[in-house]
Amino acid sequence: MGHSTPEWVYIGAVTAILIWVGAESWNIEHTLEYAPPNSETVRVVGQQWFWSFEHADGTQEINELHVKEGIPYRFEIVSNDVVHSFSVPDFAMLMDAVPGRVNTMWNVFDEPGEYLIECREYCGMLHQDMRARLFVEPNTDNATAVTSGSEPTISQGTGTATVIAPGGGEVGTTGSGTMRVVEPGNMTQTTANDSAAGNNATSGNGTSSGNASSTAAASGPTLSIPAGASTAGNPAYAPDTLTVKKGDVITVSNDDTAPHTVTNGASPGDADAGKLFDTSIIMPAATAQIDTATVDAGEHPFHCTVHPFMTGTLTVQ
Amino acid sequence: MVLELKKPRPIWEIIFSTHHTDIGLLYIIASMTALFAGGGLAMAIRAELFLPGIQIFSGQADFARFFTVHGTTLLFLWLIPFASGVGNYLIPIMVRYKDMAWPKLNAVAFWMIPPCMFLVWGGFSDTTWNAYPPYSILKAPGPAADMWIVGLKLLGLSSVLGAINFTVTILKMKHPDLPLMKMSLFAWATLATSLMIIVAIPTFAASLVMLYTDRLGVTGFFNPEMGGDPIAYQHLFWFTFHPEVYIFVLPAIGMMYEVIPTFSRKPLFSYYSGVVALIVISIIGFGSWAHHMFAVGMSFTEKTVFMVGTLAAVPSSAMHVFNFLATMWGGRIKFAAPMLFSVGAILLFFSAGAGGVVNTAMPLDFLTHDSYWVVGHFHLFVMGTISLAFTGFIYYLFPLITGRMYDTKLAKIHFVMTFVGIAVIFGIQHILGLYGLPRRVVDYLPIPELIIMNQIASFGGWAIGASYALFLYNMIKSAMFGKPANPKDPFELGTGVEYYYDYARREPHH
Ligand code: HEM
Ligand SMILES: [Cu+2]
Question: Which of A29, A105, A119, A231 is the best mutation test for B, with the most CBs of B within 10 A?
């Protein structure tokens, strides 16, 4: 009975390893904990089911984050609805986005490239799709080209969508694919609420629709997303069947308090979903346009990628 | 014999019985039902993840319902009731008392389990087994989430009643000639587990009530819109459920303390060290809960405290491993099924613990947290360690309960398939986690490495499923037609080996 020498030796060895692990972790975590004072702040907002980012100069991005190599960034992570978790696995970065809290984390990206951003906390129906991309750009000072004053256009996939800022803001394009940089003034409600100490945690989707001003000249056909559309069962699109002539530019206005999209396909799982037309995220009170010049004649079901139960049909003659 | 399928006792005699062996049997049968039902869901989950994209489920929401019910069923309807079942069966025999201290209360505790099985399966909630607010209070569809809450509430009550009964039976009804320090280590493990249940569960029981009233909208404990704090729930939840992992594992350790010396035909290396490790863990186990929450935005100090608390709990688990190995050292080991499963459990216990140390090393947790690494980590415990030890113990008790012998060849095939399957699926899930695959996703990026590893994992999972189908067949067939066991020495270990304690007393009432 009782401990014998080998057992004591063994426990000693185990304890020594544990102390070493603990001390090392403490050391490393200690440097990771405090952001250098010269870091640039990026605000990260998680909500069902996309990420949006706001840079210190007011630039906003959705589902894409552009940073520069070698600069310390401090991330302020908040959520507009449920708990999400902001994670960049390639840099071992991870921090929960918790409604009602502002969590911070910092990093210096040392390797230019494109990286995956994902949500690591189960957040509902489209949790698995809540991905974004991180672009670490080489540190030269000529990146983001913004043309001011001109009407912004972005091309996405094969369709074309135009985003018009409610306050007459502007959109520029750089980089590849669906990249989009939104200037200050756009999505103003989000910004205002968020910077009010992240206290805009709401059951719904955060932003209140203040000025639903639509600067788009509504000469063509219009499609509205009525208030309450994000609750399944409520009317999703008004009208939910829309007939236009090929070449018409449809103006989509989001009158709801949640972000929505108009994306072709009956559901996000469709093989060609988003290939014909896709507004991508339209923030509350913002508008977007769908140019049907590139859309084949025929009947095209569409849906909202954020709320796949929202569906409608577009007929192009 | 409690269960003789050839000469069955009337079913009502078992159902209305309050005798500890009957209640024990009911617990074991109910828990095994949950094992097979919950395991079936896992097979579907692995089928979905075999390929990227969405195949057999309609989407993330359905998938979430499956893994939520899978986890809830296996943790709360398999592990906990099985441990209570074996406890019911053996504790009164081990402490030499005629029954549990309160037989009627015992029956009541058992009969709360079928309704909560009904609630959990009837609702099929999608909240995940953690049910974090605000998702669970604002977005999770009812009545599923409400049924889940009520079901878990009942289960907690059942566990606490059972734990009180065990504590009183062990401490008060123990035969006066049996000193505490001579009591079997399984009884010690049950005592430690029961005390932990009594301390840990009420916290979660309270938070379930708060979750429910929050769902009704009358309170806002965890609703930030109403001034509540979702993180408060996480603290309450993990204050119960980190200790709960020891509540799961200690009965398994206790069972291994029965099996390993018996089949090594050698006395236990150190009884004293086993008792000390059990007592220490049941106290220190309460000091590490927030290691599940390193990423919720805790201060550096908090993180450090919980890392140290977690590391401090490791040596006592390591002591058990040492004790098992030192007992086997130089023994004349007979690798019958119970021993095979216990040895497999030791190996996986050790690997799982090593992975746990990685999780708790703060900077590394930001890599592994909520990735497939964590899925691999805790499955090495709940499946690789606990369920293996439990399965071995089912083989061990089989001759006692049925009076017949199981098919030993099938049992060995079962072990090999299960062990290989577990090592493959949960080993590779660690690597998947390092590749950044988040847990709880129905779909993943079509990257060749992720696809291949997920396919290997699925084959591992299906191997486990197939081997357990074999196990079920073996149990049913052998209970009816197996060759009668030699009640004195069913495993042919020879003389001088004592098992099953005072068996003559096992059927005083029928
Ligand atoms: C004794 C048996 C054990 C069981 C049954 C067990 C079970 C679990 C479970 C179920 C989880 C995941 C919970 C969830 O997020 O859903 C988990 C996570 C974790 N376990 Fe264990 N565990 C055990 C032992 C250990 C040990 C010995 C350590 C440390 C040395 C450890 C460290 C951790 C850590 C740090 C996490 C959090 C990982 C993360 O979420 O990032 N565990 N464990
Ligand atoms: Cu834990």
Answer: A29
